[in-house]
Amino acid sequence: MPATIPPPRGFPVAEFESRMVAAQRLMQARSIDTLLLTTEPEFRYFSGFHSDFWLSPTRPWYLLVPAQDQPIAIIPEIGAASMSATWVDDVRTWPAPVPHDDGLSLLCTALREVAVRFGTVGVPMGPETHVRMPLGDFQRLRDRLTGTKFVDATPIVRALRMVKSEAEIDKLRYVCGCVSDAFEAFPNLANAGVPESELFRLFRSELLRCGVDHSPYLVGAAGAGGYADIIKQPSDAEVVKGDVLVFDTGSVFDGYFSDFDRNFCFGEAASEARRAYDVVYRATDAGLAAVRPGATTSELWQAMAGVLDAGGSLGEDVGRFGHGLGMQLTEWPSNMPGDDTVLQAGMVITLEPGMVFGAGKLMVHEEDLVVREDGYELLTRRAAPEMVVID
Amino acid sequence: MPATIPPPRGFPVAEFESRMVAAQRLMQARSIDTLLLTTEPEFRYFSGFHSDFWLSPTRPWYLLVPAQDQPIAIIPEIGAASMSATWVDDVRTWPAPVPHDDGLSLLCTALREVAVRFGTVGVPMGPETHVRMPLGDFQRLRDRLTGTKFVDATPIVRALRMVKSEAEIDKLRYVCGCVSDAFEAFPNLANAGVPESELFRLFRSELLRCGVDHSPYLVGAAGAGGYADIIKQPSDAEVVKGDVLVFDTGSVFDGYFSDFDRNFCFGEAASEARRAYDVVYRATDAGLAAVRPGATTSELWQAMAGVLDAGGSLGEDVGRFGHGLGMQLTEWPSNMPGDDTVLQAGMVITLEPGMVFGAGKLMVHEEDLVVREDGYELLTRRAAPEMVVID
Prior knowledge:
homodimer, alpha+beta, Creatine Amidinohydrolase, Chain A, domain 1
C-alpha cells in the first residue's frame, strides 16, 4: 500500500484562472490574440481535461486560449462528457472522426472570432514541441485564414509550465515517493535466473502496489558488469549473476510524472561498475550543491561534469545531465552547456549525470527535485551511496 | 501466469524487407523519391526500433525510406545502441538535444542524397497522422530544400499497415488472449466499496500477471445503472452496489495493442442496462456475421446499426463502430458510413457498437478480430452474453 496519503486529483478552478492570467499577460506583451494548442499536456494545462484517450491518433483536439477571454475547446463528441467536468464553459464538438472536416471548420470559425486585434495566432513550434493535427489540415487552416499570422508560442508555454504550483508539486512529490518505495522493495522481489521481461512486469506491479496510477515509461537493461543502452525494452533473456541492471521509470499520478532510475547488481558488482556508480553518485551530490534560484542549468551541468571528468568518464550519449519534469516525462529546460536557463523557485528538474566506462558500459543516476528559495527539496529518496546488491 | 506461450519478440529481417519492397512499389507508382517518417509507429514499422523513449518529446527522430535504396535513420545519439540491434545499417546520429540544429542539417543532407529523381518527399499528412518534429524545423526544412516537393504519403503507410503479417497477428492474438484472461479473472478480485482508482490499479496488476508488457490505455467509469463517459480517468469515489462498470484497455505485447472492453455490474444490474447490453451484444454478432474479404467498413457499420436502431438506441458519441488495430490503439480504417474501406484478409479490426439508453447512459461492447479468407478469426474471447455480475 502507498506509504503516504495521495493528494486530491485535479486542481481548483483558481489554478486554471491563474494560468490563464499569466498566459494572457505574456500574449499581450507579444501581440498575440490567441494560443492554438493541439497536444495533450498543453490542452490539459489550461483546461484540466485528462484522459488516456489521446493515445488514439484518430481525432484532433483543439484548445484556444484567447488573450482577452475564456478558453474555447473544440473537441470530438466522444470527449464532451469528460470535458463537462472541467472549468471550460465554451465547448464546441463535432461527431469525429469526419476525415473531410475533422473540426477544421469549427476551428476556423473560432479563430476568426478571437484572432481579431492583431490577427496573430500563437502556436508552439519550437524545441520539444510538435503540432498534433494532420499537417494537411494545418496547411488548409492557414490557407483559409488569409491575413492571419501564425507565430511561435513556445516561449509562452515554456515559461509557464517550467514553474510548478504547490498543487502540482504535491502530485510530483507523491509519485516520486511511490516510486522510491517500489525501488526500495525491488531487491527483495527479484532474483537472478528470471527473464528481463518478467522483472519488468514484476517491477511494474510493485509500482502499482506502491500507489502510482501506472508506469507508461519503463526502460532498462541488464548486462555483465554494466549495461550499454539506457532506453532499452526488455528482452526475454535471463538475468544472471554479475549483471548490473538499471531501471528508469516515468510513473504517473494524476497525470504528473516521476523520472528517475536505480542501479542494481545481481551478486557482487565488478569493481569497475562500483567505481562508476561512486562517480555518478558524487556527481549528483555536486549537482545538488549547485541548485539554487539564480543558478543556471549550464552551471548545474558544469558542476556534474567536473566530478565525472575527474572520475574518468569516457563521455556520455544522453546529451545533457537532467531536465525539467512535470506533466511530461521530460520538459524544458536541459541541464547542458548553452541552455542557460536561470533556475527559479518552483521549477522541478531532474539531475541525471551519466558516464561511459570500461568497454562501452554506461552508468546513469537520476534524482528529481524542486528548486526552493533556500536551495532545493528532493522529491525522490536519495539512491544508496553504494550499488544495491541483489543476492 | 500467462495461459499461452508468448510469441518471439521482434521480427525476422525478411519481414522488414518485404515491408520495404511493398512501400517502394507504392512510392514508385506515385513518383515519390523517399518517405520521411517522424512518428513512433511508422519509424518502428520500417526499422524495428522499439523503445518507450518516444514518450520524451525532447528529441526528434527521422527515418527515410527511399524508393530505390535501404532506409536511413537520423537519430539522437542516445538511440544508437538500441538502433544497432535493428536491421538498419545507415544510422546517422547527433548529440541531441541541440536546439539550434536538432538533426536538421543531417536530415537536409540525407534528403538531398535520396530525393533526386523526382524531387519529391512523401510525408504522412492526412487523417490520423501528425508530423512529430517542431513545426518551425519543418518550415526551415522546406525553405532549405527549395525545389523539393512535399506530398502526402498517408495512402502508402495506410495501405501497408492496415494488412498485418502472420507474425504481427501472433502478437495481437497473444495480447488479446492475456487481456481476455484478465477480464475473466477480474470479477473474483473486485468488490463494491473500493475506490475506482484502486480497481484500476488492481486490474492493471492482473493484466501484468496475465502476461501483457503493460497497459498504456485503461479508461472506464462506474455509475448507478450505467456510465455516461467511456474515456474517463478513475476518480477516488467508491464503487457501490448497482453500479455498472466498463473497463476499456489498450494493453501491449512487444508493441502490439489489444483494444477491447468489458462491462460489469456490482450486484444486480438494472433491467434497462441489461437490455442495452443485450442489444450491443447482438449488434456485435451482426457485425461479426458481416465480416469477410470484400465487405466494406460501411457495411459493417450498417449491420451493427440495424440491430442498435431496432433495439432502441438513442444514438452514440464515438463516431464509428470500431476501427483498425495493431501498433497503435486505433488505426485506419473506421467502421462508419462513407469510410468504404474494402476488407482484406489479414486486416485486424475491432467491432465496437455502442448506444445511448435511458437518461444519457452509454453501453459499449468491443471485440478484436482478424479478417480471414473464409470470414474472420476472433482474437478476443467473446464477452459473456449477459452482463457479468460482481457480488
